[in-house]
Design brief:
Elements lengths: L5 H6 L27 H6 L16 H14 L3 E5 L2 H12 L5 E5 L4 H13 L3 E5 L15 E7 L11 H10 L3 E5 L17 E5 L13 E5 L2 H13 L6 H11 L2 H20 L4 E5 L9 H7 L6 E6 L5 H10 L4 E2 L9 E5 L1 H4 L9 E5 L5 H16 L2
Parallel strand pairs: 2-3, 2-4, 4-5, 5-6, 10-11
Antiparallel strand pairs: 1-7, 6-7, 8-9, 9-12, 11-12
Helix pairs in contact: 3-8, 4-5, 4-7, 11-13
This protein binds pyridoxal-5'-phosphate.
């Protein structure tokens, strides 16, 4: 062969590193194009079969590895990755619902999931209804011929009620309705979503699997081959890919997920218990606390809890005072995500958010990070003093 130009040589260089490099860390494979040995090999490849590679969007060794590990965490057979937790919710809706169908959402569902139903699903001719997850007896009356999917969440976002998951899932199954669980709080650690009856389990990997507060990603898992095919096809047709550098970050953190989860659980419980002793606080919503709604279900089904809880302030305090309390915090920053190193606090207007909620008063949702719990307690104490002492 004639000598090639060095520029061509740089692209088509013959050197191959020796095989056999083995390390605990997973290599970062990034590609849009994946090359085939010949045309016949290209034509023979089926992108759905994850024993080989077709195109970057369908996966590389790096993304396949994270999918397999998340499936192991959730106790699933199949997993796909999505660019965020919210897009994992969207994927489940898109894969399993069609025009004319109805989806049920718990009244305490993650807020943007309800927004998706109110606006996007509605535009596609899919209706939704809210149900009270703490009243399973009322559920059968809401399940009609149009109902194809029910979302479960445990505990509910912000108000932290822990439902009877197996009972809700059983009712759905008896009516032929697919039960999908948002398992972001449980993270595959506090309980197993499939064992409790869910057929589809999604998670915002943004939270515990990442743990660093620097990645957005989601996963959708199933044990059922038929559901997995529906989800995988929709995932491909909608072009949902994730970046290998982000996958690398999640893979790097995943091996420490259980110790991070346990550490934040312990800190959150100690702060939650302490807040129950404070006169400014009328209730602390944390499923491991005996007075928290659904505590008995948490106790029956869970071995741990995430580092999240909400404090309901006495109704004699105004929204402005509760906001001032949050503003007076130094270590707790104001922001929405959780499971990262930094503790966070967000005030919510309970009446505006949940008109059906029996409690009055204003609520603050805390997400506990990795700071020393004694420092966090001191931070809460000084902010309570500043905001409520006058
Ligand atoms: C319960 C729950 N589900 C889903 C999500 C969405 O995750 P992401 O932020 O990755 O879209 C969140 C985010 O806060 C969440 O709290």
């Amino acid at each position: 062969m004639t000598r090639r130009d060095p520029c061509t040589e740089l692209i088509h260089h013959a050197y191959r590193p020796p095989a056999g490099f083995e390390a605990p860390q997973v290599p970062v494979h990034k590609a849009s194009t994946i090359m085939f040995a010949n045309v016949a090999a290209m034509r023979a490849r089926d992108w759905r079969n994850k024993t080989g590679y077709t195109y970057g969007l369908h996966g590389t060794p790096t993304t396949f590895t994270l999918e397999a590990r998340i499936a192991a965490l959730e106790g699933a057979e199949h997993c796909v990755l999505t660019p965020s937790g919210l897009s994992a919710i969207a994927l489940v809706n898109q894969a399993l619902l069609a025009q004319g169908d109805e989806v049920l959402l718990p009244v305490n569902v993650y807020g943007p999931s309800a927004e998706m139903a109110r606006h996007e699903l509605k535009r596609w001719g899919i209706s939704h209804r809210l149900y009270d997850p703490m009243d399973p007896a009322a559920l059968p009356a809401l399940l009609g011929p149009k109902t194809k999917l029910i979302w479960l969440e445990a505990p509910g976002s912000v108000t932290m009620e822990f439902p009877d998951l197996p009972e809700l899932a059983r009712i759905a199954r008896d009516h032929g309705v697919t039960a999908a669980l948002d398992n972001t709080w449980g993270a595959g650690l506090a309980f197993n979503g499939f064992d409790l009856g869910a057929q589809v389990v999604m998670q915002a990997l943004t939270k515990y699997p990442s743990g660093g507060g620097d990645v957005l990603m989601g996963s959708v898992c199933t044990r059922n081959a038929g559901l997995a095919d529906q989800i995988k096809l929709c995932h491909m047709r909608m072009g949902l890919g994730v970046g290998a550098n982000d996958v690398e970050l999640v893979l790097r953190s995943l091996s420490t997920i259980s110790i991070r989860y346990a550490a934040q659980d312990a800190s959150a419980r100690s702060l939650a218990r302490w807040l129950t002793t404070r006169p400014e606080v009328s209730a602390v919503l944390h499923p491991a606390l005996p007075d928290s709604p659904g505590h008995a279900h948490w106790q029956t089904h869970c071995t741990a809890a995430a580092g999240l809880f909400s404090a309901l302030f006495d109704p004699r305090f105004s929204a402005a005072q509760v906001d001032a309390f949050v503003d007076a915090l130094h270590l707790f920053k104001i922001g929405y995500s959780w499971a990262g190193p930094v503790s966070l606090a967000v005030p919510y207007d309970l009446q505006q958010m949940r008109g059906d909620h029996a409690s009055t008063g204003h609520l603050v949702r805390f997400a506990v990070g990795f700071e020393d719990p004694l420092d966090l307690k001191a931070d809460l104490a000084q902010a309570l003093e500043i905001a409520f002492s006058s």
